[in-house]
Amino acid sequence: MQSSATCVPGMAESLAQLLPAQRSEDVQFSTPFHPAQLVDNPAIAWEQRGPNHFVATANGLTLQGFPLPMNARYELHVLSPSRMRGEAKVEMNVWQPCQVSAPFEFSHQGKGTSTTKAATTSR
Fold first, then answer.
1. Would you say which domain of life the source belongs to (predicted)?
2. Quick check: 123 and 101 in contact, CB under 8 A?
3. Exposure winner among 48, 66, 97, 119, fewest CB in 10 A?
4. How many other CB atoms are there within 10 angstroms of residue 114's CB atom?
5. Residue 117 maps to which CATH number?
6. The whole model's pTM is what?
C-alpha cells in the first residue's frame, strides 16, 4: 500500500482496515441478497440507488475501539449472479487529511467459493 504525504505515519495503514482485503474464501450470501453482509459495521447504512446498485455511507466511525472523525463510502454494483464490483473510500481529517481507497471485486469461482480482489491505494 502507498501512503500519501498528507497521511500521518501509520494512519493510512489503520484506515485500510476498513477496506476490503484480497482473499479467497467461502462466502455465503443470503437470499435475497443485501450488501450489509460485505461490511460488518453497524454505523454503515446501505441504500439501493438503482437495480443492482448499492451505496453506503457512514460519518463518524470507530476504529480499534476509538470513536474518530472518520467518513466511509462504499459503492457496489452487482454485475451478474456470480460477480460484484465496487469501490470503498475511507477518509479522516484530524491533524492532516488522509484518504485511502480500494476497488474490489467478488467473483464466484466454484461451488460456494468467492474470491475478493482488492487493490489498495492511498491518496
1. Bacteria
2. yes
3. 66
4. 20
5. 3.30.530
6. 0.72
